[in-house]
Amino acid sequence: MPRRYVTVDVFTDRIFGGNPLAVVLDAQALTAAQMQSIAAEFNYSETTFVLPPSTPEHSAHVRIFTPRREVPFAGHPNVGTAVVLAREIESKGRPSPERMVFEEAAGLVSISLLRERGGTVGAELEAPQPLTVGTSVSVQDAAECLSLAPSDIVGAAHPPQVASVGLPFLVAELESREALRRAKPLLSAHERILPAVGTDSIFAYVRAESRGDLHARMFSPLDGIVEDPATGSAAAAAIALIASIGIEDGSVSWRIEQGVDMGRPSLLLGRTSRLGGQVKSVHIAGHAVPVMEGVLRTLS
Question: How far apart are CA 108 and CA 166, in angstroms?
Answer without folding.
Answer: 11
